[in-house]
Amino acid sequence: MDRKALTSDLTSYDFLKFMALALMIVDHIGHFFYPDEMWWRAVGRLSAPIWLFLIGYARSRDFSLPMWIGIVVMTASGLVFGGALLPLCILATMLLCRAIIDPMMVHIARSPSSLYPITVFLLFATILTFMGVEYGTSALVVVMVGYMTRNRETLPFDKNQFLQFVIVAAFGYFIIQSYMFFSFDFQQKIFVGLGLLAVFLGLSMFQPRAYPDLTRKMPKPVVGLIQLGGRYSLELYVLHFVIFKGIAAYLGTAGYAFFDFHIL
User: Fold this and answer.
1) What is the pLDDT of residues 237-263, one digit of tens each?
2) Which DSSP category does 130 fall into?
3) For the CA atoms of the chain, what is the radius of gyration?
4) Disulfide check for 137: which of 11, 44, 67, 125 has CB 3.0–4.6 Å away?
5) Helix H or strand E encompassing 261
Protein backbone atom coordinates (compact mmCIF):
# COMPACT_ATOMS: atom_id res chain seq x y z
CA MET A 1 0.00 0.00 0.00
CA ASP A 2 1.29 3.43 -0.96
CA ARG A 3 0.36 5.43 2.12
CA LYS A 4 1.52 8.68 0.49
CA ALA A 5 -1.33 8.31 -2.02
CA LEU A 6 -3.99 7.86 0.67
CA THR A 7 -6.48 10.63 1.33
CA SER A 8 -6.35 12.47 4.63
CA ASP A 9 -10.07 11.79 5.02
CA LEU A 10 -11.49 8.76 6.77
CA THR A 11 -12.46 6.01 4.35
CA SER A 12 -14.59 2.90 4.43
CA TYR A 13 -11.34 0.92 4.42
CA ASP A 14 -10.20 2.72 7.57
CA PHE A 15 -13.40 1.87 9.45
CA LEU A 16 -13.46 -1.72 8.23
CA LYS A 17 -9.81 -2.45 9.07
CA PHE A 18 -10.05 -0.67 12.42
CA MET A 19 -13.05 -2.82 13.36
CA ALA A 20 -11.23 -5.98 12.21
CA LEU A 21 -8.15 -5.02 14.24
CA ALA A 22 -10.22 -4.38 17.39
CA LEU A 23 -12.00 -7.73 17.04
CA MET A 24 -8.66 -9.46 16.45
CA ILE A 25 -7.20 -8.00 19.64
CA VAL A 26 -10.23 -9.27 21.55
CA ASP A 27 -9.68 -12.70 20.00
CA HIS A 28 -6.00 -12.77 20.97
CA ILE A 29 -6.69 -11.58 24.52
CA GLY A 30 -8.87 -14.65 24.85
CA HIS A 31 -6.34 -16.93 23.17
CA PHE A 32 -3.31 -15.89 25.20
CA PHE A 33 -4.77 -14.92 28.57
CA TYR A 34 -8.27 -16.39 28.98
CA PRO A 35 -8.24 -19.66 27.02
CA ASP A 36 -11.10 -21.13 29.06
CA GLU A 37 -13.42 -18.14 28.62
CA MET A 38 -14.74 -18.79 25.14
CA TRP A 39 -16.77 -15.60 24.73
CA TRP A 40 -13.54 -13.77 23.90
CA ARG A 41 -12.97 -16.21 21.06
CA ALA A 42 -16.61 -16.11 19.97
CA VAL A 43 -16.40 -12.35 19.49
CA GLY A 44 -12.99 -12.65 17.89
CA ARG A 45 -14.29 -15.06 15.24
CA LEU A 46 -15.79 -12.07 13.43
CA SER A 47 -12.35 -10.60 12.66
CA ALA A 48 -10.66 -12.98 10.20
CA PRO A 49 -13.44 -12.90 7.56
CA ILE A 50 -12.91 -9.15 7.17
CA TRP A 51 -9.19 -9.53 6.42
CA LEU A 52 -9.82 -12.45 4.06
CA PHE A 53 -12.64 -10.63 2.29
CA LEU A 54 -10.31 -7.70 1.60
CA ILE A 55 -7.75 -10.05 0.02
CA GLY A 56 -10.34 -11.08 -2.55
CA TYR A 57 -11.75 -7.58 -2.93
CA ALA A 58 -8.38 -5.95 -3.63
CA ARG A 59 -7.30 -5.26 -7.19
CA SER A 60 -3.64 -5.97 -6.46
CA ARG A 61 -2.06 -9.34 -5.72
CA ASP A 62 0.95 -7.88 -3.97
CA PHE A 63 3.52 -10.27 -2.46
CA SER A 64 5.06 -7.45 -0.49
CA LEU A 65 8.25 -7.65 1.53
CA PRO A 66 6.49 -6.47 4.74
CA MET A 67 4.18 -9.51 4.55
CA TRP A 68 7.17 -11.85 4.28
CA ILE A 69 8.92 -10.06 7.13
CA GLY A 70 5.76 -10.39 9.22
CA ILE A 71 5.65 -14.15 8.61
CA VAL A 72 9.31 -14.52 9.59
CA VAL A 73 8.90 -12.40 12.74
CA MET A 74 5.81 -14.27 13.89
CA THR A 75 7.39 -17.66 13.21
CA ALA A 76 10.54 -16.61 15.07
CA SER A 77 8.38 -15.48 18.02
CA GLY A 78 7.26 -19.08 18.33
CA LEU A 79 10.86 -20.22 18.66
CA VAL A 80 11.42 -17.74 21.49
CA PHE A 81 8.10 -17.74 23.32
CA GLY A 82 6.97 -21.29 22.68
CA GLY A 83 3.86 -22.79 21.15
CA ALA A 84 3.32 -24.53 17.83
CA LEU A 85 5.29 -23.42 14.76
CA LEU A 86 2.55 -24.80 12.51
CA PRO A 87 0.13 -23.78 11.23
CA LEU A 88 1.79 -20.67 9.84
CA CYS A 89 0.09 -17.39 10.65
CA ILE A 90 -2.76 -15.85 8.68
CA LEU A 91 -0.26 -13.70 6.75
CA ALA A 92 0.96 -16.87 5.02
CA THR A 93 -2.66 -17.82 4.35
CA MET A 94 -3.21 -14.43 2.74
CA LEU A 95 -0.21 -14.82 0.44
CA LEU A 96 -1.40 -18.25 -0.69
CA CYS A 97 -4.91 -16.91 -1.28
CA ARG A 98 -3.50 -14.09 -3.40
CA ALA A 99 -1.69 -16.64 -5.55
CA ILE A 100 -4.72 -18.92 -5.99
CA ILE A 101 -7.81 -16.72 -6.15
CA ASP A 102 -7.48 -15.25 -9.66
CA PRO A 103 -6.94 -18.49 -11.64
CA MET A 104 -9.58 -20.23 -9.52
CA MET A 105 -12.18 -17.53 -10.18
CA VAL A 106 -11.31 -17.44 -13.90
CA HIS A 107 -12.13 -21.15 -13.99
CA ILE A 108 -15.40 -20.59 -12.10
CA ALA A 109 -16.36 -17.76 -14.47
CA ARG A 110 -15.86 -20.11 -17.42
CA SER A 111 -17.65 -22.97 -15.68
CA PRO A 112 -20.26 -21.51 -13.27
CA SER A 113 -21.52 -24.97 -12.31
CA SER A 114 -18.17 -25.58 -10.58
CA LEU A 115 -18.79 -22.86 -7.94
CA TYR A 116 -20.34 -25.09 -5.29
CA PRO A 117 -18.26 -28.24 -5.91
CA ILE A 118 -15.13 -26.11 -5.47
CA THR A 119 -16.58 -24.46 -2.36
CA VAL A 120 -17.45 -27.82 -0.77
CA PHE A 121 -14.00 -29.17 -1.64
CA LEU A 122 -12.29 -26.17 -0.02
CA LEU A 123 -14.32 -26.55 3.15
CA PHE A 124 -13.63 -30.27 3.48
CA ALA A 125 -9.96 -29.86 2.56
CA THR A 126 -9.59 -27.65 5.64
CA ILE A 127 -9.34 -30.88 7.66
CA LEU A 128 -5.82 -31.32 6.23
CA THR A 129 -4.73 -27.87 5.10
CA PHE A 130 -5.26 -26.14 8.46
CA MET A 131 -2.18 -27.99 9.70
CA GLY A 132 -0.05 -25.96 7.29
CA VAL A 133 -1.59 -22.49 7.45
CA GLU A 134 -4.17 -20.84 9.69
CA TYR A 135 -7.79 -21.38 8.57
CA GLY A 136 -6.65 -23.76 5.83
CA THR A 137 -8.58 -23.76 2.57
CA SER A 138 -11.72 -22.45 4.28
CA ALA A 139 -10.02 -19.04 4.02
CA LEU A 140 -10.36 -19.19 0.24
CA VAL A 141 -14.15 -19.42 0.55
CA VAL A 142 -14.18 -16.03 2.26
CA VAL A 143 -11.72 -14.63 -0.28
CA MET A 144 -14.13 -15.77 -2.99
CA VAL A 145 -16.85 -13.60 -1.44
CA GLY A 146 -14.52 -10.60 -1.65
CA TYR A 147 -13.62 -11.33 -5.27
CA MET A 148 -17.26 -11.79 -6.28
CA THR A 149 -18.27 -8.58 -4.50
CA ARG A 150 -15.67 -6.57 -6.41
CA ASN A 151 -16.27 -8.27 -9.76
CA ARG A 152 -19.95 -9.12 -9.59
CA GLU A 153 -20.73 -7.21 -12.80
CA THR A 154 -18.37 -9.37 -14.85
CA LEU A 155 -19.21 -12.75 -13.33
CA PRO A 156 -22.00 -15.02 -14.67
CA PHE A 157 -24.09 -14.84 -11.48
CA ASP A 158 -27.13 -12.68 -10.93
CA LYS A 159 -27.94 -10.81 -7.72
CA ASN A 160 -29.87 -13.69 -6.16
CA GLN A 161 -27.19 -16.23 -7.02
CA PHE A 162 -24.54 -13.96 -5.53
CA LEU A 163 -26.54 -13.48 -2.32
CA GLN A 164 -27.15 -17.21 -2.10
CA PHE A 165 -23.42 -17.88 -2.34
CA VAL A 166 -22.66 -15.32 0.39
CA ILE A 167 -25.10 -17.08 2.73
CA VAL A 168 -23.72 -20.53 1.88
CA ALA A 169 -20.16 -19.28 2.40
CA ALA A 170 -21.09 -17.80 5.79
CA PHE A 171 -22.73 -21.06 6.87
CA GLY A 172 -19.84 -23.22 5.67
CA TYR A 173 -17.29 -21.00 7.38
CA PHE A 174 -19.38 -21.07 10.57
CA ILE A 175 -19.45 -24.87 10.57
CA ILE A 176 -15.67 -25.02 10.23
CA GLN A 177 -15.09 -22.48 13.00
CA SER A 178 -17.63 -23.83 15.47
CA TYR A 179 -17.25 -27.58 15.06
CA MET A 180 -13.66 -28.05 13.93
CA PHE A 181 -11.64 -25.36 15.66
CA PHE A 182 -13.64 -24.38 18.76
CA SER A 183 -15.87 -25.95 21.41
CA PHE A 184 -18.47 -23.23 21.76
CA ASP A 185 -21.58 -23.75 23.85
CA PHE A 186 -25.05 -23.35 22.32
CA GLN A 187 -25.36 -19.62 23.01
CA GLN A 188 -21.89 -18.94 21.65
CA LYS A 189 -22.67 -20.91 18.50
CA ILE A 190 -25.82 -18.85 17.98
CA PHE A 191 -23.81 -15.66 18.46
CA VAL A 192 -21.04 -16.76 16.11
CA GLY A 193 -23.48 -18.01 13.48
CA LEU A 194 -25.60 -14.88 13.42
CA GLY A 195 -22.54 -12.66 13.76
CA LEU A 196 -20.79 -14.27 10.80
CA LEU A 197 -23.95 -14.06 8.69
CA ALA A 198 -24.24 -10.34 9.48
CA VAL A 199 -20.54 -9.79 8.71
CA PHE A 200 -20.69 -11.67 5.40
CA LEU A 201 -23.84 -9.85 4.28
CA GLY A 202 -22.41 -6.50 5.34
CA LEU A 203 -19.14 -7.17 3.52
CA SER A 204 -21.05 -8.12 0.37
CA MET A 205 -22.32 -4.51 0.24
CA PHE A 206 -18.91 -2.92 0.85
CA GLN A 207 -17.80 -0.05 -1.40
CA PRO A 208 -14.73 2.19 -1.26
CA ARG A 209 -15.77 5.60 0.05
CA ALA A 210 -14.24 8.67 1.63
CA TYR A 211 -15.97 10.66 4.37
CA PRO A 212 -14.61 14.24 4.34
CA ASP A 213 -17.53 15.75 6.28
CA LEU A 214 -17.36 13.09 8.98
CA THR A 215 -13.58 13.55 9.18
CA ARG A 216 -13.99 17.25 9.91
CA LYS A 217 -16.67 16.67 12.53
CA MET A 218 -14.86 13.97 14.50
CA PRO A 219 -12.12 14.85 17.03
CA LYS A 220 -8.68 14.64 15.45
CA PRO A 221 -7.38 12.07 17.98
CA VAL A 222 -10.28 9.76 17.09
CA VAL A 223 -9.63 10.23 13.37
CA GLY A 224 -5.94 9.52 13.94
CA LEU A 225 -6.70 6.39 15.95
CA ILE A 226 -9.04 4.98 13.30
CA GLN A 227 -6.57 5.74 10.52
CA LEU A 228 -3.72 4.23 12.53
CA GLY A 229 -5.65 0.98 12.83
CA GLY A 230 -6.78 1.10 9.22
CA ARG A 231 -3.49 2.03 7.59
CA TYR A 232 -0.93 0.27 9.76
CA SER A 233 -2.91 -2.89 10.42
CA LEU A 234 -0.09 -5.23 9.32
CA GLU A 235 2.46 -3.64 11.63
CA LEU A 236 -0.01 -3.52 14.53
CA TYR A 237 -1.00 -7.13 13.95
CA VAL A 238 2.57 -8.39 14.14
CA LEU A 239 3.51 -6.09 17.04
CA HIS A 240 0.59 -6.93 19.30
CA PHE A 241 0.85 -10.65 18.53
CA VAL A 242 4.52 -10.83 19.50
CA ILE A 243 3.93 -8.75 22.64
CA PHE A 244 0.96 -10.87 23.71
CA LYS A 245 2.90 -14.08 23.10
CA GLY A 246 5.86 -12.75 25.10
CA ILE A 247 3.61 -11.80 28.03
CA ALA A 248 1.92 -15.21 27.91
CA ALA A 249 5.33 -16.92 28.02
CA TYR A 250 6.42 -14.73 30.94
CA LEU A 251 3.23 -15.49 32.86
CA GLY A 252 3.27 -19.15 31.90
CA THR A 253 -0.28 -18.97 30.59
CA ALA A 254 -2.01 -20.40 27.53
CA GLY A 255 0.57 -23.16 27.12
CA TYR A 256 3.44 -20.80 26.26
CA ALA A 257 6.91 -20.82 27.80
CA PHE A 258 10.29 -19.54 26.69
CA PHE A 259 11.90 -21.77 24.03
CA ASP A 260 9.26 -24.45 24.59
CA PHE A 261 8.22 -24.77 20.94
CA HIS A 262 6.93 -27.68 18.91
CA ILE A 263 6.04 -28.22 15.27
CA LEU A 264 2.27 -28.90 15.59
Assistant:
1) 999 999 999 999 999 887 899 999 889
2) T
3) 19
4) 125
5) strand 261-262
